[in-house]
Design a protein that fits this description.
By secondary structure, the protein is mostly helical. Helices cover about 60% and strands about 0% of the residues. It has 13 helices and no strands. About 5% of the residues have low confidence.
């Protein structure tokens, strides 16, 4: 799992150090997200695997990434930053809690939960963003039980909050769940474009020979079908992770 340091190159591709580029914006983004009311279930764009086109063999190189940019602000990009720097969300949560009194009862239920089923039930019901980090921490305490259960739940349609929490928890578990996630995406059951986009971010972090083609096709398809949305950022960020990992391995040889 890669982790972004303050002095590392910014993932936006500007060439600047992260601390002198997007770090402050990402911190502000986390605080704004946490301060917002709980996400409510809403209608979204739906797609099925049968709609996906074959966009040929992936060609990841400097030219491709120079000509295909991630949106400056998007939910997949914010999730990506959170995966790279999970500590930022904890810091932002502490700051927001100083000015907002919310979610205390739910936090107590998270702390008191004695089994994974109770935690996943909370996870399924749009928990307050201020409690996301603690909920994930509790799920990680029992990751041998919680990870398979979360993957099973992802085979069914879920609200956006559940998918975001699932991606964060599975990433932090340190286990390669790429085969399971690819099957979930390809199954057609989880057909919300946003959910697929966020799951695409996650599979980019894992070594899997089947990931690159899937991400390539979804990137081009989402970019074409949803030109006014940011769904394409998810698969593009997954491709960026694959490319960066590939370059890192090449530099060691």
């Amino acid at each position: 799992m890669s982790k972004l340091g303050r002095n590392d190159p910014c993932p936006c591709g500007s060439g600047k150090k992260y601390k002198r580029c997007c770090l402050s914006a990402h911190n502000a983004g986390f605080e704004e997200r946490l301060a917002a009311p709980m996400r409510t279930k809403q209608e979204d764009d739906f797609i099925s695997i049968e709609e996906l086109f074959d966009y040929g063999n992936p060609l990841l190189d400097e030219t491709f990434f120079a000509n295909n940019d991630v949106h400056e602000i998007s939910a997949p990009r914010l999730i990506y930053s959170c995966l790279l720097n999970p500590e930022i969300e904890g810091i932002a949560s502490k700051v927001v809690r100083q000015i907002i009194n919310r979610g205390k009862e739910e936090k107590e239920r998270i702390e008191a939960a004695i089994n994974v089923e109770a935690l996943i039930n909370i996870m399924s019901n749009n928990p307050d963003p201020l409690n996301h980090k603690r909920l994930i921490d509790r799920l990680l305490e029992k990751k041998a039980q919680s990870a398979p259960m979360i993957l099973r739940e992802l085979t069914k349609p879920q609200n956006d909050s559940f998918v975001e929490l699932a991606v964060s928890m599975l990433h932090r578990s340190g286990t390669n769940f790429s085969e399971e996630i690819i099957e979930i995406i390809k199954s057609g059951n989880n057909r919300k474009a946003y959910a697929i986009s966020i799951l695409c971010v996650l599979i980019g972090f894992f070594d899997n020979e089947n990931s690159e083609k899937l991400l390539w096709d979804y990137y081009h398809y989402m970019k074409f079908k949803y030109p006014n949305d940011t769904y394409s950022d998810g698969p593009l960020l997954g491709l960026i992770e694959i490319w960066e990992r590939r370059k890192g391995k090449a530099s060691l040889n």
